[in-house]
Structure prediction request, 90 residues.
Amino acid sequence: HSPLNQYLHRIGISDSPRCPHCPETIETAPHFLLDCPHYARERHILSNALRRKANSLTFLLTSEAATSPLMRFVDSTGRFKKTFGEISDV
Prediction:
């Protein structure tokens, strides 16, 4: 599980499952990692590091080669800072 609103809402921590930047969209891992326009700049940097593979949720979540670039992406969005603080590069 990740501290995104879909999950946080399910366990009663968030008032809404919606993305804080896209009010019509449920904040899921695929939305956060691949689609949310608010993180387009951070996603561009991730894409530069991983090329086409950055568009594969399976690759991002299972490949060791994706770990460091993905952690840099997550940290640069600031989305998990409240929960985890700064996320160091692996």
Q: What stands out?
A: Residues 39 and 77 are 7 Å apart (CA to CA).
